[in-house]
Design a protein that fits this description.
The structure holds two protein chains of two kinds.
Chain A (H helix, E strand, L loop, with lengths): L13 E10 L5 E11 L2 E6 L6 H9 L6 E6 L2 E2 H6 L3 E4 L13 H7 L13 H13 L15 H14 L4 E5 L7 H16 L3 E5 L6 H4 L2 E6 L1 E7 H4 L2 H8 L4 E5 L12 E5 L5 E4 L6 H10 L2
Parallel strand pairs in A: 3-8, 3-9, 6-7, 7-8
Antiparallel strand pairs in A: 1-2, 1-4, 4-5, 9-10, 11-12, 12-13
Chain B lengths: L11 H27 L2 H10 L1 H10 L3 H22 L4 H22 L6 H6 L7 H30 L1 H6 L4 H23 L4 H4 L2 H9 L3 H26 L3 H19 L5 H18 L1
The chains are: A alpha/beta, B mainly alpha.
The structure holds adenosine-5'-triphosphate and magnesium ion (MG).
Amino acid sequence: MNSPEKVELGADLTIAVNGVTVTYSNGHTALEEASFELKQGCICALVGVNGSGKSTLFKALMGFVIPSRGQVLVSGRPVLEAQKNNWIAYVPQTEEVDWTFPVSVSDVVLMGRYGHMNFLRIASAKDKRIVEESLKKVEMWDYRSRQIGELSGGQKKRVFLARALAQESRIILLDEPFTGVDVNTESAIIDLMRDLRRRGRIILVSTHNLGSVPDFCDHAVLINRRILAWGALHEVFTEENITKTFGGVLRHFHLDKSTVDESDGRSVTLLTDDERPLVLGKGGHLERRHLTESGEQNL
Amino acid sequence: MIFDPLIPFQYDYMQKAIWVSTLVGGVCGLLSCFMTLKGWSLMGDALSHSIIPGVVVAYGLGLPIAVGAFVAGLLAAGLIGWIKEIVSLRDDAMIGVVFTTFFAIGLLLISLYPSPINLKMIVFGNILGISDQDIRQLLWISAICLITILLLWRDLFLWCFDPIQARVIGFPVRFLKFILLSLLTLTAVAALQTVGVCLVVAMLVTPGATAYLLTDRFSSMMGIAFFLGAITSFLGAYFSYFLDGSVGGSIIVLQTIIFLLAWIYAPKHGILAMKKGKNLSLLTEVKQT
Ligand SMILES: Nc1ncnc2c1ncn2[C@@H]1O[C@H](COP(=O)(O)OP(=O)(O)OP(=O)(O)O)[C@@H](O)[C@H]1O
Ligand SMILES: [Mg+2]
């Protein structure tokens, strides 16, 4: 929030997923004919049940799994090129690193800066400043000299988020950043994402936390092996689509009278996939409160 | 008779042995940091055995042995990687199969074609009788390894720590792996000549493992491991003169003693410190109740 520099990032930042099909070596097709497109300055939610292919989609976006059909383009160019240009930051669902490595919290975040350094990777004053800022944003600055394994699960998550921030890339991919973090951290992460959106980045975030999606996302991709719906949040985040995405696993509560929204005659629908419930108005559309909120954020 | 501590330095061959060992020990120490962290101890052992056929063939063809060893080492590493892709076997099983095969071929070649290298040299090293030509090779190898590590250690470290992130930011991960394997093969060739094939893996693991216990920062770990590798090799070679024993044996025994000391007394990861930590937490628990 405090550094207004680097707002303009080239007007044509896009991610285009064109008919991507991913089949794992065991023959399981985790993703079929997936297509959608995202433009700069958006936070897009990726929602679906366990095993619906969310992480697979991320891996395809990163080029870690090779689609058997279709392709992913970043601003019209192959993903590999975007990676070489340090355009993409990625925080995986679970970090598969060796936590016993002799590396401190600030060292890990500094690694996010490697793409900006010369080939000797010698940190400049600017790199160090950005590391400090990033650590402060996730409130981990006090832990900067801890060995990385000596942190709690949520703290580890925040450190890797700080590394993604320090990377200053145009595209940020977050695979379930909210699992195992407390409410304060969750809202801190949401603030960070809004800040990044204001700076024209694309943020794709998978989550099971349906209730908080309308709080910060402006687009959504609903997935269950295939893309069931995608687009602006208020168009796709409807009871019909969400029920379709989650099948019977959602808990349904229909309340005919509530204190929620005068204009709907106080009738609401609660949808929950275990986490915060999603509150929908009559007819299964988003509450007006969310619409105005995300409208403001888009300014 | 008066004990003269400088006697070893009066002999040309001892001087050479001491200084060459020190250099090789330092380089192996540096690399051992990556080996311990990457979990490549077995790989180091495998490669040091796999280079034997290359050494024999190079001698036969009149090539520098480092070249033959390098080719054989990369061949073995490549084979291990290739088999891994087509057969789903556990890593250690594959490594075991490949390296014993290469070693067996090496032994076969030695027995079939008489050459100036004999088994004893390969098993125990030949630092006391090392030729000036071999010294020159070792100097080259050490220089190449030192410079490469100095230039690339941060990239290599990131790749070891978090290969996914390395790919995300566009690092050439295959190239980095190739570099680390090449460095491993080169240092294995160098260590082969100083301590012999059986002890190579100790040179490539123990200093790093010791340094790991002493620090939580990779840069200091590399510094400590380099220093330990060099100083133990220097002292090992030096004392071997008075003991009239094997140079390699002395070096490795020294390294192990220092490792044990670190394991017991290291400020944070030593067993004494851990015990103390346990007692402290017990104490606070008692106080709370
Ligand atoms: N490496 C793999 N090999 C084979 N199948 C896999 C592999 N990884 C995932 N799958 C399968 O692909 C499907 C999609 O998995 P994916 O990890 O993308 O799901 P997800 O949407 O991220 O689920 P979650 O909400 O649990 O994180 C699952 O059915 C899973 O079993
Ligand atoms: Mg997943």
